[in-house]
Design a protein that fits this description.
The complex is a heterodimer of chains A (136) and B (57). Chain A is mainly alpha-helical. Chain A contains seven helices and no strands. Chain B is mainly α. Chain B contains two helices and no strands. The chains are: A mainly alpha (136), B mainly alpha (57). At the A-B interface, helix 4 and helix 7 of A face helix 1 of B.
Chain lengths: 136, 57
């Protein structure tokens, strides 16, 4: 008789659609939260530290948190990428950070950090989803 | 902090860290993958930088 490990039971428990939505929302809101929820502590902690740190560095480099401006498609896409960062984006918006200093030498680097943080968090959300589905 | 190279190293470090941890489950494999990606980032940037050197802006 075989017994299932807790790691094998966890994905099955989260495979219900409602739980998966919650898992993805948590993973979006707090980078790494999805992995922590699914018991992947090491991965979750790395994402929890690395992604907000990247976002903070982007702000320190005078990067811009882009507004939704549909008349400029590239700005709108950058805004979507910013939003994908989750809590760091929300906190940045609440604190009125991310005004962006176009004349700063590091402006583009800052944007790069801010945008890539969001895009990496999308991959982290997909990974958490896969774990929730029991694929990993 | 306006050193282009330092910012490149910083960016490469974070992206390699996240990808290494995301793509592999075993810590050794994570370090190996992350280190390879980090080296790839830095090496590619240096090679492309030197290749572009003769071209005027």
């Amino acid at each position: 008789m075989t017994t299932k490990s807790t790691a094998a039971e966890r994905p099955r428990a989260a495979a219900e659609p409602g739980m998966l939505v919650l898992l993805c929302l948590a993973a979006w809101a707090i980078p790494g939260a999805g992995h922590l929820w699914m018991g992947r502590r090491q991965k979750g902690l790395v994402f929890l530290l690395a992604l907000p740190a990247m976002f903070l560095i982007g702000l320190l480099l005078h990067g811009r948190i882009f507004p939704f401006d549909l008349s400029e498609p590239l700005v709108a896409l950058a805004a979507v990428a910013n939003v994908c960062a989750g809590a760091p984006w929300m906190i940045g918006r609440m604190l009125d950070a991310g005004g962006g200093t176009v004349t700063a030498a590091t402006y583009e680097y800052g944007n790069c950090f801010l945008i890539v943080t969001g895009l990496l968090n999308v991959l982290v959300i997909f990974d958490a989803f896969d774990i929730g589905m029991g694929r990993k | 902090m306006t050193s282009h190279f330092l910012l490149l190293v910083l960016f490469s470090f974070f992206v390699s860290l996240v990808f290494g941890v995301l793509l592999r489950d075993d810590p050794r494999q994570q370090i190996r993958t992350g280190a390879m990606m980090f080296g790839g980032f830095i090496g590619t940037a240096l090679v492309l930088g030197w290749l572009m050197y003769p071209f005027p802006l």
